[in-house]
Design goal:
- The protein is mostly beta strands.
- Helix content is about 0%, strand content about 55%.
- The protein is built from no helices and eight strands.
- It has a six-stranded antiparallel β-sheet with strand order 3-4-5-6-7-8, with no helix packed on it.
- A hairpin with a 2-residue loop joins strand 6 and strand 7.
- It is globular and about 45 Å long.
- The two termini are about 25 Å apart.
Length: about 120
């Protein structure tokens, strides 16, 4: 599974928020081709705010991507649950400036569990 910004486990999500702090980058229309214990691959659209002239007044633009989740690790405080810790975005057409065509990010949204 993959953990979202709200520390919730997701399996084959249709949407995934990349910019947890401000919501200006989100994957949408995800269609999962594979999902297993080592990797997961989907096609979809990265919706990115251009933040021009500033983010609140900016416009969202679509960028087609192939998404790969990988590097499963035990989820802290849930030792029997593996969660993907890396996301790779491969833009299939244009890219949002100044993002490269192929970019990988760490996915470690671990907040302490409260009793």
């Amino acid at each position: 599974m993959v953990v979202d910004c709200f520390n919730k486990p997701q399996t084959r999500p249709e949407e995934y928020l990349l910019a947890c702090g401000d919501g200006n980058n989100r994957l949408v229309d995800l269609h999962w081709n594979t999902w297993n214990h080592k990797t997961a691959t989907a096609t979809g659209t990265d919706m990115v705010n251009d933040c021009r002239p500033y983010c609140a007044a900016g416009r969202f633009h679509p960028y087609p991507v192939t998404v790969t989740l990988s590097h499963p690790q035990p989820w802290p405080n849930h030792p029997n649950t593996q969660r993907f810790t890396t996301i790779r975005l491969l833009y299939t057409h244009t890219t949002p400036t100044p993002v490269p065509k192929d970019v990988t990010y760490k996915l470690v949204y671990d907040s302490p569990d409260t009793p």
